Amino acid sequence: MPKRLTVSLALCAALALSACSSTEAQMPDDQTHKIAAEGTASPSPSASPQDLTTAEVATTAGAVLASQLGFPSSAKIQGKDLEALSTPPTDTLKDIVVLPAQCSAPINDLNWSPVQLGTEAARTDFTNENQSITGSVEVAKLGKDGAGTVASHNKNVRTILDQCKSAKLNGMDYTETLKFSDPKVDSVDSALYYSRDGQYAQNSLVLIKTTKEYAVMVSFLSANPLSDAKFNKVAGSVMDAAIAQLP
Q1: Which long-range contacts (CB under 8 A, 24 or more apart) does 127-131 make?
Q2: Do residues 218 and 238 lie in contact, with contact meaning Cβ atoms separated by under 8 Å?
Q3: Of 27, 141, 209, 233, which sees the most CB atoms within 10 A?
Q4: 220: helix, coil or strand?
């Protein structure tokens, strides 16, 4: 039985981010961490906690807090949209040369998310349309092998931070640079901030944390920089709200 939905709204952090216009990213597309904005996502329903799975309760809690912190529009990803996200993308770096070469595999692993564990899962996306920032909170049950899978992903993140702070992606008709850094968000298992330049510039912040039974990912995407301590606090607070609902 899911826990009662009890979200602390004590934090009132402000988002000091300038307005920007959103741009659809091209290959290698960050499908995992961007909002599912193709028009098939459903507005978040006002279902009672008794009708929700534990994962859904947690994502709802995160979205409720996000709405108090500047992200008033949300959509529950479900049905075919959620099923599509559960399938790991393939060939994301096809015909692309990554330099340094040892960064190719860990960068490709950035397309991983908890819903790919194939267990009980839920995701809610939320937006600040005025500032064109999209975010999501995703929760999935670890299952039999989930803890090892999450640990492997977190190891790849550490490899990126240690060896791939700047990586060049060279395609047949484009080139771009990815820059990675540690956003220094406390109380999470994995935290990564990265930016990509070029025609489809974007900035991403991704946090991951596990409980005994569940994995949680909170991510944000924007055309403008997200490297702001106040924004990190918002992301961490959304994570805490989701984690508080989990065993």
Answers
A1: 127/35, 127/71, 127/73, 127/74, 128/15, 128/70, 128/71, 128/72, 128/73, 129/73, 130/19, 131/15, 131/17, 131/18, 131/19, 131/20, 131/70, 131/222, 131/224
A2: yes
A3: 209
A4: strand
Encoded amino acid at 116, one letter: Q
At a CB cut-off of 8 Å and minimum separation 6, what does 14 contact?
Answer: 70, 230
Helix (H), strand (E) at residue 179: strand 175-181
Q: What is the pTM of this model?
A: 0.81
pLDDT tens for the chain, residues 1 to 247:
444 333 322 222 222 222 222 333 333 445 555 544 343 344 444 555 568 899 999 999 999 999 999 999 999 999 999 999 999 888 788 889 999 999 999 999 999 999 999 999 999 999 987 778 899 999 999 999 999 999 999 999 999 999 999 999 998 888 899 999 999 998 899 999 999 887 778 999 999 999 999 999 999 999 888 877 888 999 999 999 999 999 9
Give dist(CA 134, CA 143) in Å, integer: 29
Torsion of Cα atoms, 92 then 205 then 141 then 245, to 10°: -160
- Beta strands 202-210 and 214-222 are antiparallel
Q: Is 2 left (phi over 0), alpha (psi -120 to 50) or beta?
A: beta
CA distance 129 to 111: 24
Task: Please state, in angstroms and rounded to a whole number, the distance separating the CA atoms of residues 182 and 205.
Answer: 10
CB atoms within 10 A of CB 165: 14
User: How far, in Å, CA of 14 to CA of 51, rounded?
Assistant: 33
Token pair, residue 18, equals 């300038």
